[in-house]
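BACKBONE STRUCTURE TOKENS:
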Amino acid sequence: MVFDFLRRGAQARVPESKASATGRVVAYSSSGRVTWSPRDTVSLTRTGFSGNPVGFRTVKLIAEAAAALPLVLQDCDRRYDQHPLLALVRQPNQAQGRAELMEALFAQLLLSGNAYIEAVCVEGQAAPVELHVLRSDRMSVVPGSDGWPVAYEYSVGGRKVRFDASGAVSPICHVKTFHPHDDHYGFSPLQAAAMALDVHNSASRWSKSLLDNAARPSGALVFRGSDGHGSMAEDQFQRLSEEIEANYQGARNAGRPMVLEGGLDWKPMGFSPSDMEFHKTKEAAAREIALAFGVPPMLIGIQGDATYANYQEANRAFYRLTVLPLATRVASALSDWLGRYTGEVLELKPDLDQVPALASERDAQWARVARADFLSDVEKRALLGLPALAEAGDDE
């Protein structure tokens, strides 16, 4: 019967329990299989930012440049010198200033493709009194029945804090990059550069192991006896293995000459750095990492880049193509989000007139607009991105 094993005395007929036959076996990866690092946010941050100098420098360069951009607040009528929103951005909380908070915000966006800002409100006040950047790897989106986020959960120390996002104004501002296959999370540049990061890190590890081995590739000892046979006696093989392990293996024995007995010949089994084009491979991986983030290789010290004529042009392209689009997007998201608290329609954006890298472009644009006699003052201000002042009037 099917249930006979439930009866007393039927222990001998109990069916075998399910268990993996390989549960205690250590997995072995063959040399012919490519191994890539994990693609989750924590692993990518560890290997691509904390453990890679190119990734660290590119993220830090973009985040610091974008955080240092001056911001202006304006609406359709005027530009504000004093405003509660400006004061909040300049002093977001007691522990951080504007530059520190914005740098953390841009770094989270670059590392994970997502950035989360929490607004802290006080009862009786419409506008928030503090802003905090939350770690992206601890935040998760809670979608509703219609697919739109209804809440955010922040996990830390075994506890979860839930932020309700179903109201008119969410306490969390979620800034994310475009992701073609995900509705709730952004796509990180680290994910696009993950293969190049693995190649660059593997090249660094190989270089370190090569230096530990006195910059010599691995090889094998080939035995040829006097009778022409290639086999050693068991005691000879054991003695030779112990001698090599004790006297020649490890970094402390690097460079120590090997004394070979008769019939033994050293045969290298690895390629030299020139054969592998080691430096070219590492530089190519570094270029791919910089390309994924939009940083000209010249700015991070990669030699041989002939894309730009000089450092000034590379720096201008870096600001125009990478820093400004990122800063404009984040500033627009912040102004739209914070404007819902007070019901104002405001625009927070970078002040292009105070960016030294774009000074020559702005000078040329101002001169070109100033010479346009067929434009009124209001139209000229609109072309320069300035609000239309009431006293400016229209000349037509």
Remarks:
- The first strand starts at residue 71 and ends at 74.
- Confidence is low (pLDDT under 50) at residues 17-32, 391-396.
- DSSP finds twelve helices and eleven strands in the chain.
- The radius of gyration is 32 Å.
